[in-house]
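S1.2 Input.
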Amino acid sequence: MAKKNIQRPHAEDAYKKELAALSKIDTKNIPPNWNLSPKAVVTYIVGGKLEDGTEIETKYYGDRRLIEVAVATLLTDRALLLLGIPGTAKTWLSEHLSAAISGTSKLLIQGTAGLSEEALRYGWNYAKLLAEGPSENSLVVSPVLKAMQTGQIVRIEELTRLPSDVQDSLITVLSEKTLPIPELNTEQQAIQGFNVIATANNRDKGVNDLSSALRRRFNTVVMPLPKSFAEEVKIVQTRVEKFVQKLDMPKSKVPIEEINRLITIFRELRSGGTTDGKMKLKVPGSTLSTAEAISVVNNGVILAAHFGNGTMSAKDLAASLTGAIVKDPKTDEVAWKEYLETVVKDRKEWKDLYEACKDA
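S1.3 Output.
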């Protein structure tokens, strides 16, 4: 069946031309079962211009060395753990790393509190199991087992959301690179190229900390928030422009001034102080990440396009801003109202935003 109007294409499909261009000129050593050399993988992530003139879009804005460490880890006997607060591009990076290295980002396990051990290891087709007994034909292959068979990268999202006993089922896979299948009196040994990229949120409550035995099997890379104001603005602007291009909606404009104001608010509330250092602020419990900022602007763009004059205004921005900041009405609302009255209100050029937020 032809794939049309896919809402969110996989990375390997959305950036197929870039991956092909990199592969064509890649003269560096390519590890077994990798599609690209480590250097080409880094170029795919951080962007650049190739010798043939092909522009490689930047997928991750930040420290190049962090990406180099992540890629190098996947060549070692350790798995990669991307750790950080929500909205620091952990999932985005894991998807693009998998696409560049293995040619697919589809070998994915979404971690939840109710996930069973079978989802990580393997399961059974019970109709065939009853009819034939345990056999390879009745085995249901998990993404982990599939990755081991093919020498590819498997992604595990929100690893710390998994129950501890389910987490620990990975220890043998990561240390011995073997998955025992006792029902068949056999095992699956990992083909070269196999590895795991896991993500974990260090701000969630009720998570299951990794055991020391499992943590030793991972090399942890902490995903930071953007260092500079300009970098964060650039990320939001780029992602919103891509969002607008994908949607079939009336032409809309995203004033950079509105993004600047939004990022200023987020950075001041995150840091607990105004940019000029003259005032301390209450810090809300919400993460106020770059991803949250992108979501706020995306919503404002849609409001402006369909219910306004096409140009995002302070009113459009304010519609989602309060909801992004106030996640817990008891604590976050106090911090937000205080910020509105002591900071936003006193900035004359922000009068329209103050009034819009008061009415939102």
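S1.4 Remarks. The mean pLDDT is 92.
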